[in-house]
Amino acid sequence: MTPNRRDFLKIAGASALTIMTPAIFVPAWAKNSIVMPPGQGLAPQKALAAKRWAMAVDLTKCTANCADCIVACHAIHNVPEFGNPKDEVKWIWTEPFASVFPGESHAYSGEKLQKMRPPVFCNHCENPPCVRVCPTKATFRRSDGIVMMDYHRCIGCRLCMAACPYGARSMNYRDPRPFTAKINPDFPTRTKGVVEKCNFCEERLAKGTLPACVEACRQKALTFGDADDPRSDIRRLLETRFSLRRRAHLGTGPQIYYLL
Amino acid sequence: MLEKALKGNRGYWIWIACLILVATVGFFFYLRQLDYGLGITGMSRDVSWGLYIAQFTFLVGVAASAVMLVLPYYLHDYKAFGRITVLGEFLAVSAVVMCILFVFVDLGRPSRVMNVILHPQPKSILFWDMIVLSGYLLINIVTGWVILSCNRKEIPPPRWVKPIIYLSIPWAISIHTVTAFIYAGLPGRGFWLTAIMAPRFLASAFASGPALLILVCLILKRWGCFDAGEKAIQTLAKIVAYALAVSIFFVLVELFTVFYSQIPEHMHHFQYLFAGLDGRYNLVAWMWTFAVLSIAAFVILIFPGVRRKESWLALACVLVFVSLWIEKGLGLVITGFIPSPLGAITEYSPTGPEIAITLGVWAAGFLMLTLFYRIFTSVHFERENR
Fold this sequence. Notes:
Order of helices and strands of chain A: HEHEHHEHEEHEEHHEHEE
Strand order of the largest sheet of chain A: 8-1-10-9
Mean pLDDT of chain B: 92
Number of helices of chain A: 9
CATH architecture of chain A: 2-Layer Sandwich
Radius of gyration of chain B: 21 Å
Number of domains of chain B: 1
Low-confidence stretches of chain B: none
Low-confidence stretches of chain A: none
CATH superfamily of chain B: Formate dehydrogenase/DMSO reductase domain
Oligomer: heterodimer
Number of domains of chain A: 1
Number of strands of chain B: 0
Helix content of chain A: 25-40%
CATH architecture of chain B: Up-down Bundle
């Protein structure tokens, strides 16, 4: 039997489909497993490790017109400066107390509270909505609690920005490189079209140093540590001082604690 | 059958040429967007979704509406719809293609779109939306095409297609439900955090989609040598009337909960929509237009004597389509971001390139729709003049 045109097209179409199948089924059977030499972990020896990284911001020490933490963070992480709020990318910034804690402010709070501008970051939630909604696992939560971004996997759908109740995420609406004043070669720059945010300086923790904002703060208002460790500084602060968390009623479990 | 789309009169070709022109302009601006980044649009850090995702949301509804033809015909043997179920299925195909295109042009890194399949995340609603939308596309291509070919050969449709048609009914509900879940499951956005989101989506979908189908039937009757039949059109009109009534009711239910409970996180968004907030009024005129148009359409549609007159019916359908486009294609998505989680009121207005790309996608969708309907009408024309 000589095949007619219709049959030929059917066979050709079916063959074309088979080319696609391996790509679809790869995740099921070809997961790469990393083989490590015995007695060696993934993390280098001097890395700081924790079960739950957390940060305390002492609002009694933090001064209103200071931007040391922001400058240090943005310089180290190649955060661009577009000069307009539309394209803005920011990892740390300050907001009026009433915006950070709308439920905790009222008309009669004193001048001190009204003038306060707490720094805001990614909260590295225990139950992060951004991780839940990401369709590609480009944003994920490590076992030590750090919520991370894979800039090479992000498709730029911005569902995480809609999901974040803290407005902590920024989209690279344009190519950020020309707008980065001085590029730090030790940290990747981003491309246009991906989302980014604070990463708790995981690249510094891996080298055994504290986050850049904590180091930069001259008032020593920022305390970073393992909230799971009863002997850590941050744990002692949380036990002795009154603390607030942003929109904790949403069940996200934010890990930035504001001390009052 | 495809070659039938290549025959048409002068008016047909002028219409096709216009659509191709608009789509090409859109494509040109999309190339510019690829080069510059999404910053070319009016979207910002605070309002991170705009016209594209809003069109997507609206069009999912249009796509889902095919079920309003399929369900009465296949489950209740409502014969009057027998001739036009294919119209609904082709409308669904074009609408889903537009949906996919709108999501695609909204991506910051479109070249990585396959990551959704390579690294699937079943916890993400977007993952499920991809599954239900592509499934719905496939179902409607198969059923629409098979049934039309059988119509042409004047043979009954093969038996294997029936289960697929039955499957298309719950599947149509699913695409709109899952799309609503994208919004309704986000903890920090008071505007969307409501269980009535999915029912509201469905109600407005079953009004806007059939309204478009009525308009299409009226156009085909006048210029396309195809008469869907008075009975079919009037039944569709009743469906639009009921769906619109339910849709308006759901909006009012939402407004009651928000304004009687007076929880600021929920109320501020609606204040921004209907009254403006802190001196920002971008959407206020639009939303009142929506309110007036939808009520006007409802008044026209509830009187049988009025809706039986074709010109009034056409007017009502235009009003329904436009008003629900304002509600879903403009108000629903953007307002979720205003005010922002930090209380900032950043307004959004689309830029020229963004509007051009949006129109381009609409033109591409209507081009598909025109070609499908051209095939459909010529198949029927041949059959009736044999």
